[in-house]
Recover the amino acids of this structure.
Protein backbone atom coordinates (compact mmCIF):
# COMPACT_ATOMS: atom_id res chain seq x y z
CA UNK A 1 0.00 0.00 0.00
CA UNK A 2 1.19 3.52 -0.74
CA UNK A 3 -0.19 6.82 0.43
CA UNK A 4 -2.06 8.92 -2.12
CA UNK A 5 -2.61 12.63 -1.47
CA UNK A 6 -5.26 14.50 -3.41
CA UNK A 7 -5.59 18.25 -3.87
CA UNK A 8 -8.18 20.78 -5.01
CA UNK A 9 -10.54 19.34 -7.67
CA UNK A 10 -9.03 15.84 -7.24
CA UNK A 11 -9.70 15.96 -3.48
CA UNK A 12 -13.21 17.22 -4.10
CA UNK A 13 -14.02 14.54 -6.70
CA UNK A 14 -12.68 11.80 -4.42
CA UNK A 15 -14.26 13.14 -1.25
CA UNK A 16 -11.00 12.69 0.65
CA UNK A 17 -7.58 14.32 0.80
CA UNK A 18 -5.62 11.18 1.58
CA UNK A 19 -5.98 7.41 1.19
CA UNK A 20 -3.93 4.24 0.94
CA UNK A 21 -4.09 2.11 -2.19
CA UNK A 22 -2.28 -0.94 -3.52
CA UNK A 23 -0.08 -0.99 -6.60
CA UNK A 24 3.44 -1.79 -7.76
CA UNK A 25 3.63 1.07 -10.19
CA UNK A 26 2.15 4.57 -10.35
CA UNK A 27 -0.29 3.51 -13.07
CA UNK A 28 -1.64 0.67 -10.87
CA UNK A 29 -2.35 3.02 -7.97
CA UNK A 30 -4.05 5.55 -10.24
CA UNK A 31 -6.23 2.82 -11.74
CA UNK A 32 -7.17 1.67 -8.23
CA UNK A 33 -8.03 5.29 -7.37
CA UNK A 34 -10.19 5.67 -10.49
CA UNK A 35 -12.02 2.44 -9.64
CA UNK A 36 -12.66 3.60 -6.11
CA UNK A 37 -13.58 7.23 -6.80
CA UNK A 38 -15.36 6.97 -10.15
CA UNK A 39 -15.63 8.95 -13.41
CA UNK A 40 -15.54 12.49 -12.01
CA UNK A 41 -12.20 11.70 -10.35
CA UNK A 42 -10.95 10.07 -13.54
CA UNK A 43 -11.85 13.25 -15.44
CA UNK A 44 -9.75 15.37 -13.08
CA UNK A 45 -6.90 12.86 -13.20
CA UNK A 46 -6.64 13.20 -16.99
CA UNK A 47 -5.57 16.83 -16.58
CA UNK A 48 -3.44 16.38 -13.47
CA UNK A 49 0.25 15.90 -12.79
CA UNK A 50 1.41 13.09 -10.55
CA UNK A 51 4.37 13.42 -8.20
CA UNK A 52 6.10 10.83 -6.08
CA UNK A 53 7.81 12.32 -3.04
CA UNK A 54 7.63 15.76 -4.64
CA UNK A 55 9.01 14.80 -8.06
CA UNK A 56 7.11 14.30 -11.34
CA UNK A 57 6.92 10.68 -12.50
CA UNK A 58 5.36 8.61 -15.26
CA UNK A 59 2.86 5.75 -14.98
CA UNK A 60 5.64 3.12 -15.16
CA UNK A 61 7.47 4.44 -12.11
CA UNK A 62 7.92 1.61 -9.59
CA UNK A 63 6.84 2.33 -6.01
CA UNK A 64 7.94 1.28 -2.54
CA UNK A 65 5.77 1.35 0.59
CA UNK A 66 7.17 4.59 1.97
CA UNK A 67 6.40 6.52 -1.23
CA UNK A 68 3.88 9.33 -1.22
CA UNK A 69 1.95 9.91 -4.43
CA UNK A 70 0.22 13.21 -5.06
CA UNK A 71 -2.40 14.12 -7.68
CA UNK A 72 -2.07 17.77 -8.67
CA UNK A 73 -4.74 19.33 -10.90
CA UNK A 74 -3.88 22.47 -12.93
CA UNK A 75 -2.59 25.12 -10.51
CA UNK A 76 -3.95 28.62 -9.93
CA UNK A 77 -1.78 30.27 -7.31
CA UNK A 78 -0.82 33.91 -7.36
CA UNK B 1 25.48 27.00 -10.81
CA UNK B 2 26.07 28.93 -7.58
CA UNK B 3 24.74 27.64 -4.31
CA UNK B 4 22.25 30.10 -2.88
CA UNK B 5 21.32 30.48 0.74
CA UNK B 6 18.87 32.34 2.93
CA UNK B 7 21.02 35.48 2.84
CA UNK B 8 19.79 36.09 -0.73
CA UNK B 9 16.55 34.06 -0.92
CA UNK B 10 13.47 34.34 1.29
CA UNK B 11 10.57 31.99 0.58
CA UNK B 12 7.51 31.43 2.72
CA UNK B 13 4.02 29.94 2.65
CA UNK B 14 1.85 31.20 5.48
CA UNK B 15 -1.70 31.70 6.70
CA UNK B 16 -0.68 35.01 8.25
CA UNK B 17 -1.08 38.42 6.61
CA UNK B 18 1.82 39.23 4.26
CA UNK B 19 3.74 42.25 5.53
CA UNK B 20 4.84 44.11 2.40
CA UNK B 21 7.00 46.62 4.29
CA UNK B 22 9.03 43.80 5.85
CA UNK B 23 9.66 42.23 2.44
CA UNK B 24 10.66 45.56 0.90
CA UNK B 25 13.07 46.23 3.76
CA UNK B 26 14.61 42.74 3.57
CA UNK B 27 15.13 42.71 -0.19
CA UNK B 28 16.94 46.07 -0.33
CA UNK B 29 20.71 45.87 -0.50
CA UNK B 30 23.52 48.47 -0.61
CA UNK B 31 24.78 47.31 -4.06
CA UNK B 32 21.30 47.55 -5.55
CA UNK B 33 19.70 50.73 -6.81
CA UNK B 34 16.39 49.11 -7.71
CA UNK B 35 13.79 47.20 -5.73
CA UNK B 36 10.80 45.87 -7.62
CA UNK B 37 7.95 44.55 -5.52
CA UNK B 38 4.87 42.90 -7.02
CA UNK B 39 1.77 42.12 -4.96
CA UNK B 40 -1.11 39.95 -6.10
CA UNK B 41 -4.33 40.98 -4.37
CA UNK B 42 -7.83 39.49 -4.19
CA UNK B 43 -10.11 40.97 -6.87
CA UNK B 44 -13.86 41.46 -6.44
CA UNK B 45 -14.70 39.78 -9.76
CA UNK B 46 -13.58 36.99 -12.07
CA UNK B 47 -14.46 35.96 -15.63
CA UNK B 48 -18.25 35.40 -15.57
CA UNK B 49 -18.23 35.53 -11.79
CA UNK B 50 -19.35 38.95 -10.49
CA UNK B 51 -19.34 39.75 -6.80
CA UNK B 52 -16.39 37.66 -5.66
CA UNK B 53 -16.31 37.90 -1.86
CA UNK B 54 -13.28 35.80 -1.02
CA UNK B 55 -10.70 33.37 -2.33
CA UNK B 56 -9.81 30.14 -0.58
CA UNK B 57 -6.20 29.14 -1.29
CA UNK B 58 -5.31 25.46 -0.90
CA UNK B 59 -1.72 24.25 -1.16
CA UNK B 60 0.45 21.16 -1.09
CA UNK B 61 2.12 22.97 1.79
CA UNK B 62 5.18 20.68 2.20
CA UNK B 63 6.13 21.34 -1.41
CA UNK B 64 5.46 25.08 -1.70
CA UNK B 65 8.63 26.44 -0.13
CA UNK B 66 10.92 24.01 -2.03
CA UNK B 67 9.26 25.07 -5.30
CA UNK B 68 9.42 28.78 -4.45
CA UNK B 69 13.10 28.28 -3.67
CA UNK B 70 13.64 26.71 -7.11
CA UNK B 71 12.00 29.74 -8.76
CA UNK B 72 14.20 32.16 -6.81
CA UNK B 73 17.37 30.19 -7.60
CA UNK B 74 16.51 30.06 -11.28
CA UNK B 75 15.99 33.85 -11.30
CA UNK B 76 19.36 34.39 -9.63
CA UNK B 77 20.99 32.15 -12.25
CA UNK B 78 19.27 33.93 -15.09
CA UNK B 79 19.97 37.47 -13.87
CA UNK B 80 23.28 37.11 -12.07
CA UNK B 81 23.33 40.78 -11.07
CA UNK B 82 20.33 40.36 -8.76
CA UNK B 83 20.86 41.10 -5.09
CA UNK B 84 18.03 39.32 -3.30
CA UNK B 85 14.80 37.53 -4.20
CA UNK B 86 11.77 37.11 -1.90
CA UNK B 87 8.75 34.97 -2.82
CA UNK B 88 5.91 34.70 -0.31
CA UNK B 89 2.47 33.16 -0.76
CA UNK B 90 -0.47 33.21 1.59
CA UNK B 91 -2.95 30.33 1.98
CA UNK B 92 -6.35 30.03 3.64
CA UNK B 93 -9.36 32.31 3.14
CA UNK B 94 -8.60 35.84 1.89
CA UNK B 95 -11.05 38.73 1.53
CA UNK B 96 -11.20 41.20 -1.36
CA UNK B 97 -8.19 43.53 -1.27
CA UNK B 98 -5.95 41.27 0.77
CA UNK B 99 -2.49 40.35 -0.56
CA UNK B 100 -2.12 36.73 -1.64
CA UNK B 101 1.40 36.80 -3.08
CA UNK B 102 4.49 39.00 -2.89
CA UNK B 103 7.43 38.89 -5.29
CA UNK B 104 10.34 41.20 -4.51
CA UNK B 105 13.74 41.48 -6.16
CA UNK B 106 16.63 43.87 -5.87
CA UNK B 107 19.08 44.61 -8.66
CA UNK B 108 21.70 47.25 -9.48
CA UNK B 109 19.38 48.79 -12.11
CA UNK B 110 15.67 48.79 -12.81
CA UNK B 111 15.65 46.79 -16.07
CA UNK B 112 16.79 43.58 -14.39
CA UNK B 113 14.54 44.22 -11.39
CA UNK B 114 11.43 44.56 -13.59
CA UNK B 115 12.35 41.61 -15.81
CA UNK B 116 13.20 39.25 -12.95
CA UNK B 117 10.11 40.18 -10.96
CA UNK B 118 7.85 39.57 -13.96
CA UNK B 119 9.54 36.23 -14.71
CA UNK B 120 9.27 35.16 -11.07
CA UNK B 121 5.50 35.73 -10.80
CA UNK B 122 4.84 34.00 -14.14
CA UNK B 123 7.02 31.03 -13.18
CA UNK B 124 5.59 30.84 -9.66
CA UNK B 125 2.07 30.65 -11.06
CA UNK B 126 3.04 27.76 -13.36
CA UNK B 127 5.19 25.69 -11.01
CA UNK B 128 3.99 25.99 -7.40
CA UNK B 129 1.25 23.61 -6.15
CA UNK B 130 -1.37 26.13 -5.01
CA UNK B 131 -5.04 26.32 -6.02
CA UNK B 132 -7.57 29.10 -5.59
CA UNK B 133 -11.26 28.53 -5.07
CA UNK B 134 -13.40 31.53 -5.90
CA UNK B 135 -16.48 32.30 -3.82
CA UNK B 136 -18.89 34.68 -5.57
CA UNK B 137 -22.59 35.65 -5.41
CA UNK B 138 -23.55 32.79 -7.72
CA UNK B 139 -21.55 29.98 -6.16
CA UNK B 140 -18.07 28.72 -5.48
CA UNK B 141 -15.64 26.91 -7.76
CA UNK B 142 -11.97 26.50 -8.66
CA UNK B 143 -10.26 29.41 -10.41
CA UNK B 144 -10.66 29.36 -14.20
CA UNK B 145 -7.17 30.56 -15.07
CA UNK B 146 -5.35 27.36 -14.16
CA UNK B 147 -2.11 26.08 -15.70
CA UNK B 148 -0.96 22.49 -15.95
CA UNK B 149 1.79 22.20 -13.39
CA UNK B 150 5.27 22.69 -14.91
CA UNK B 151 8.79 22.21 -13.60
CA UNK B 152 10.99 25.27 -13.02
CA UNK B 153 13.93 23.63 -14.85
CA UNK B 154 11.83 23.21 -18.02
CA UNK B 155 10.69 26.84 -17.97
CA UNK B 156 14.18 28.13 -17.19
CA UNK B 157 15.46 26.40 -20.35
CA UNK B 158 12.64 27.29 -22.69
CA UNK B 159 12.03 30.97 -21.84
Amino acid sequence: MVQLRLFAAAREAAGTSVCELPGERVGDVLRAASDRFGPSFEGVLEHSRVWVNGEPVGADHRLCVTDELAVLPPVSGG
Amino acid sequence: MHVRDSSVIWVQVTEAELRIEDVAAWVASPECGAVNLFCGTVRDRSEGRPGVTCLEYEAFVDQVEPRLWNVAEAALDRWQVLGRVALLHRVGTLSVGETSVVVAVSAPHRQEAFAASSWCIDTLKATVPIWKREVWEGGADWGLCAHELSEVADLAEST
Summary: The domain at 2-72 of chain A is CATH 3.10.20.30 (Ubiquitin-like (UB roll)). The first helix of chain A runs from residue 8 to 14. Chain A touches chain B through 18 residues (CB under 8 Å).
